[in-house]
Design brief:
Blueprint: H1 19-28, H2 34-43, H3 47-51, E1 58-59, E2 64-67, E3 78-81, H4 84-95, H5 127-136, H6 152-163, H7 168-175, H8 180-186, H9 191-212, H10 223-229
Antiparallel strand pairs: 1-2, 2-3
Helix pairs in contact: 1-5, 2-4, 2-6, 6-7, 6-8
Length: about 230
């Protein structure tokens, strides 16, 4: 087989949306975008997949959303259990079901006869709306300027799930990542959790050092002392 070199991968990593920054951006977003944003921060679902969610993918009896393979990047069904605030968001959206629209998330122009976006469903892209909200919240606009993009919700969810103690395989099932290599690129690592683990390791070493410095109650006898005693 001929050698085919792999294309160079972009080593840039995403950004972590701290709770404070997330709240600041959400406060500037219009009401129709907020549910998708909050859900993205919690579950890390891709923007397009999330926007194209149909109500029939939701099973409130089981408290899950099950996206079919055709809607998922890895062409396998993606099942996400809903809990707490995530379940509340979905329940409220289901209560807002509109007879003419099959989607879970609705955009400002949702109306009978309107043709939804093939990529972003009824919700729409909302890229300009997102940029406006970031600017109003005092953040740079756009990735090149060092600002936030909606895709950073995937970094945030992956990081929070792992920092909260969820193992990697289960976290990947939530976010829908296909490989551990890619997931680890999204998991930015929680610095505070890392600091706590570092403190525990320092304490462990201090404990070992203290034990090694314990002076015996009775010093061991020398060889000459042992001969005299014998």
């Amino acid at each position: 087989m001929p050698y085919i070199p792999r294309l160079a991968e972009d080593g840039r990593r995403g950004r972590y949306l701290s709770p404070g920054d997330a709240d600041a951006i959400e406060a500037q977003l219009p009401d129709y975008v907020r549910p998708a944003f909050r859900f993205g921060v919690m579950y890390g679902t891709r923007k397009g997949q999330l926007a194209r969610t149909l109500r029939r993918y939701v099973d409130l009896e089981r408290s899950v959303i099950e996206w079919p393979p055709a809607e998922c990047k890895k062409r396998e069904a993606h099942v996400v259990p809903l809990d707490g605030d995530g379940l509340t968001i979905v329940e409220r959206l289901m209560d807002d079901a509109r007879p003419w629209c099959p989607f879970l998330f609705h955009g400002p122009d949702c109306a009978p006869g309107r043709t939804p976006s093939k990529v972003y469903g009824c919700l729409g892209d909302f890229k300009k709306t997102w940029a406006k909200a970031c600017k109003a919240a005092g953040f740079p606009v756009g990735r090149k300027a060092g600002g936030y993009v909606f895709h950073h919700t995937r970094n945030t969810a992956a990081t929070n799930l792992r920092a909260g103690g969820m193992d990697e395989a289960d976290a990947m099932r939530i976010t829908g990542h296909q490989t551990a290599h890619v997931f680890r690129h999204y998991d930015l690592g929680d610095v505070n959790v890392l600091r706590e683990r570092l403190a525990r390791s320092r304490e462990y070493v201090r404990g070992l050092r203290a034990k090694s410095k314990v002076t015996p109650l009775r010093p061991a006898a020398t060889a000459s002392e042992q001969r005299v005693a014998g």
